[in-house]
Amino acid sequence: xxxxxxxxxxxxxxxxxxxxxxxxxxxxxxxxxxxxxxxxxxxxxxxxxxxxxxxxxxxxxxxxxxxxxxxxxxxxxxxxxxxxxxxxxxxxxxxxxxxxxxxxxxxxxxxxxxxxxxxxxxxxxxxxxxxxxxxxxxxxxxxxxxxxxxxxxxxxxxxxxxxxxxxxxxxxxxxxxxxxxxxxxxxxxxxxxxxxxxxxxxxxxxxxxxxxxxxxxxxxxxxxxxxxxxxxxxxxxxxxxxxxxxxxxxxxxxxxxxxxxxxxxxxxxxxxxxxxxxxxxxxxxxxxxxxxxxxxxxxxxxxxxxxxxxxxxxxxxxxxxxxxxxxxxxxxxxxxxxxxxxxxxxxxxxxxxxxxxxxxxxxxxxxxxxxxxxxxxxxxxxxxxxxxxxxxxxxxxxxxxxxxxxxxxxxxxxxxxxxxxxxxxxxxxxxxxxxxxxxxxxxxxxxxxxxxxxxxxxxxxxxxxxxxxxxxxxxxxxxxxxxxxxxxxxxxxxxxxxxxxxxxxxxxxxxxxxxxxxxxxxxxxxxxxxxxxxxxxxxxxxxxxxxxxxxxxxxxxxxxxxxxxxxxxxxxxxxxxxxxxxxxxxxxxxxxxxxxxxxxxxxxxxxxxxxxxxxxxxxxxxxxxxxxxxxxxxxxxxxxxxxxxxxx
Length: 648
Description:
Number of helices: 26
Structural class: alpha/beta
Distance between the termini: 92 Å
Helix content: 40-55%
Number of strands: 18
Largest sheet: 7 strands, mixed
Shape: globular
């Protein structure tokens, strides 16, 4: 039976759920059926849009139990990370929005205040919920409000340092607060670190392994997740909360501990949550779950349990439907391995994202030269500083949005010591479906103020390889290499090179210098063609290294009537702003117009849709450039006309 058929034939209970109160009324048998219907629904919907599959399949029963015990939205349910909140959205009446999940006009892939009163925090960076929860609990206590605060911490989030800072304060405050540790042993890939090893000791208990083996055997004979699967799930439910002795680790912090509890057993987890709710102080409920639970394609995906397919996928296999293409990440990963073959001092670091950032390619060849530090970007940056002090050249690969969290470490731990650390920022610029918290639009502005830091933005495969080599060759300070998501652009050769600056197109007329940053180089070439049709000449350049501003770029600017910059980052403090300042310092009086992303929270959609909304298309840029340069022509005519009038 296909998932679509399962949804059609067995979605009757799910169709009755319009809010948490509907789940509260269900019997235990109905909840089992509902859990299966939710899995059918999730797989059918997300297979068409892309999104986070594995994390949400693992929290179905856990989420149902939470909504039966607590009264959202009066009781506040916080999800860390937010990508495991799809089931919460279903229970709180947002089923209809899943047809356009992560698409323009549809549901966000994370909690969203604009969508529902049941969502409170929408910052989807990991390890923050416990700090939010600490503040909320303190506020309610001070105001005399009897409201529960529940923080679900899972999918690797507990490896982040903020969680431990929060736990220390939560224990000291002693306010009522329920912390649900969704322990699935993984973030994107298997969770790394001492805490993970400690929790693994619970999962590796023979009693627990027996339950998991039963599930695995059942999955092997079950095609998908329709009616046969929920019968299997019901058959294998065996509470494990008494199978393993509770650990003292959390109680040593001064926080009561309940567990481990089978996170796929609604009555068991519900009982633990009720006890925690009634305790009157901070309690940790340790729920053991399986990421991708109940869906064979996810269970058998060793890399990341089908964590987050970026687009539509085949339900039977879990494989993406789009034809394979060469991604920016692939080019980086391959070139890094080649460089590592030549330089034994090159090592890789990532923060729980080895596969998504390409570092896993290096790890497969040189496992002893790659360090996955878990969801701990701050530690990654300073650990990289230590590696550099020890004579190595670390390459730290993270998403652009996540390096924001380590600004202080990059500034003071790396740059102040002039250490050779290369930060590779994947998913830079507007990324699209994941929304504002994941847009990598801040790095060129935020890190542009770091003394001695060099920032490169490649335009294609060839320049990515070249600039990565140049970055790793730097031995007197840190470097950043940033590139966007998706398919890598076709190679765009330069006409000539002036210092580090590539000249991509030239004209007999020197009306406009168009500075196209990184992946906007192709857009710059199209703009030049359109503006030339209006009789103006455009020189298109790719700075390659955008910070600090190359002196050669300032010299090129001095030879033109107008300078226009186009960048896939925020305008405030961006490349255009930096170039304008450098020109002022050099007493170059040519006017500068900078085009980029406004410093705002831009909604999710496709990258193309958002760039069009922002006027960052070839048509829009060409229209602006033509208007600006023609305006300069008009200004030069007006003084001459005024002078003639005065003589008469």
